[in-house]
Design brief:
Radius of gyration: 29 Å
Number of helices: 8
Distance between the termini: 86 Å
Number of strands: 0
Strand content: under 5%
Order of helices and strands: HHHHHHHH
Structural class: mainly alpha
Shape: rod-shaped
Length: 210
């Protein structure tokens, strides 16, 4: 019954996390990247409109960056520190409910093992009380039921652990995208844009015969 309750709680938490990811637009980065390109090209109004038109975590971060930078009294250092605070808050929000899921994945096998141990103790106590008139079928049935608790515990823990790992990977990807966008916003993506400009110059520069 305890394992059944844990499985119901785990399913509810997983559904809540999936809905949270959908509502917050986790994984939708195209609009934020497009807004960044417009901002770096000097098209501030277009960048602001694009960032505001999409609902996602990184688009919200980009919109806050653009709004903060467009203020007359904007201080780049303060803006950078504050946007890091906002990013940390967003990541912590995405990690909500992961700790209970991880605890379920860790404790479910232990609860199943405890049930098996208690069931085996009960079976052997019954065997001791029966003395020489032990019914092997009854003993085997008690042991089978006891071992089933471990199997149920593992059946709960394995998928929950895999899903927690998938949630973690999505959150790490979102964190990396935030960091990349914020860094590119303040550095102007000089490495990529400089390389692209050099390639453009090489293509358009006329070649003289030797």
């Amino acid at each position: 019954m305890l394992l059944l309750l844990l499985s119901i709680v785990a399913v509810a938490l997983i559904i809540a996390k999936v809905l949270q990811f959908i509502v917050l637009g986790v994984g939708r980065h195209a609009a934020a990247q497009k807004a960044l390109h417009h901002w770096l090209d000097g098209q501030a109004q277009e960048a602001q409109s694009i960032a505001a038109s999409r609902t996602s975590v990184v688009s919200d971060i980009m919109l806050k960056l653009i709004n903060g930078a467009r203020r007359v009294d904007a201080n780049r250092d303060l803006l950078k520190e504050d946007i890091e605070r906002v990013c940390i808050q967003r990541i912590n929000g995405l990690r909500a409910y992961l700790r209970p899921l991880d605890m379920i994945a860790q404790t479910a096998p232990l609860i199943g093992l405890l049930g098996t141990v208690l069931g085996m103790i009960e079976a052997f106590q019954a065997m001791q009380g029966a003395g020489a008139a032990v019914d092997p079928s009854v003993l085997a049935g008690g042991i089978w039921v006891a071992l089933m608790t471990t199997a149920v515990g593992l059946a709960v823990a394995i998928p929950v652990s895999a899903i927690v790992g998938w949630f973690d990977s999505r959150i790490e990807a979102e964190s990396s995208e935030m960091e990349a966008l914020v860094t590119a916003f303040f550095t102007g993506a000089v490495a990529e844009r400089g390389a692209a400009r050099n390639v453009s110059l090489e293509v358009t520069e006329p070649r003289h015969a030797i």
